[in-house]
Amino acid sequence: MRIGAVFVSALFGLAAACGNAMAAEGHLADAVNRTVLRVCATPANLPYSDEKGEGFENKIAQLMADDMKRQSVEYTWFPQSMGFVRKTLAEKRCDVMMGTVQADELTLNTNHYYRTTYALIVKKGSGLEDVKSVFDPKLKGKTVGVQAGAPAADHVAKAGLMATARSYRFIVDTRYENPPQEMANDVRKGEIDAGVLWGPLAGWYAKHGGEELVVIPLLEQHPGTEKLEYRITMGVRSGETAWKHEINDFIARRQGDIDKILLDYGVPLIDEDNKLITEPRYAKSTN
User: Fold this and answer.
1) Are 143 and 164 in contact (CB under 8 A)?
2) Element (H or E) spanning 21, and its range?
3) Which of 47, 79, 115, 247 has the most C-beta neighbours closer than 10 Å?
């Protein structure tokens, strides 16, 4: 979905066609602009990014620019679609992609700066607020919204909920379509009983668009199903290891500030033991 700036929305939609182009680049240190921070991003893609700078990736990019003493943040905007990497990062129009997936073969990944999971959204007073998994018997016979093709759809199918599920589009041009908002609105209207969304989207749309919904991170592990939790990194061009290390240093220095931004946007943060992180992880003082 940038699973961002392109996750989640870029999370699963990065273009496979750019692999060869990136592999052929060679040494790219001189391609990185040291005066401004040049970011590849998707417009109209809240909660990640938009042209008004209202997304959490916008805020993290500004934090990064300030920390690295860059004069400003400059964006190369490209819709969430096939060709995103090829038309932005690979063409050297920008130097970093926010919100990529660790182990993504299309980019050189930094260390992850957050880890999150899919979540369930339900109405307050629905009787479903204590559900912890799509395999919970309380969801039997209920109408559950799910984005077709998302990893969570595998869980919904194996839980036997597809017969009554409602499908929403997964990879779209976010300038014109907003399936997560539609799903959240349908929960509010009672047209579906629950919705399964990528965590950052669940946290955002549960609070925007009307009555606030309950967000339930899906933390339980179920054998035989796809994982629902992912480490989210930034991506740079292949070969730019010095630039990658510079970003890694920023992440280590400012992890607490990054956490605060994400928590303010309702992103369900989880640690390596799949436990919720509820407070920013500021480094402890050695004094």
Assistant:
1) yes
2) helix 19-23
3) 47
Please tell me the distance from the alpha carbon of residue 125 to that of residue 246, in angstroms, as a whole number: 48
Phi, psi of 39 (to 5 degrees): -115, 135
* 69/81 Cα distance (integer angstroms): 32
For every residue of 28-41, DSSP letters joined together read -GGGS-SSSEEEEE
Alpha-carbon distance of 169 to 274, in angstroms, equals 28
List, in order, residues 6 or more apart from 119 with CB less than 8 Å away.
Answer: 196, 197, 198, 199, 202, 203, 215, 216, 217, 218, 268
pLDDT in tens, 201-260: 999 999 999 999 999 999 988 888 889 999 999 999 999 999 999 999 999 999 999 999
| Cα gap 152→138, rounded to integer Å | 18
Decide if 30 contacts 83 (C-beta within 8 A): no
For the segment 98-138, what is each residue's pLDDT rounded down to a tens digit?
Answer: 999 876 677 899 999 999 999 999 999 999 999 999 999 99
Whole-prediction pTM = 0.88
276-277 vs 269-270, strand pairing mode: antiparallel
Just give the CATH number of 117-217.
Answer: 3.40.190.10
Using alpha carbons, select from 235, 193, 228, 229 the residue that is nearest to residue 214: 193
Q: Is the dihedral of CA 61, 63, 67, 71 positive or negative?
A: positive
Given a contact cutoff of 8 angstroms between Cβ atoms, the answer to whether 243 and 32 are in contact is: yes
Please, where in the chain does CATH 3.40.190.10 lie?
Answer: 16-114+230-271, 117-217
Q: Is the distance from CB of 234 to CB of 41 less than 8 angstroms?
A: no
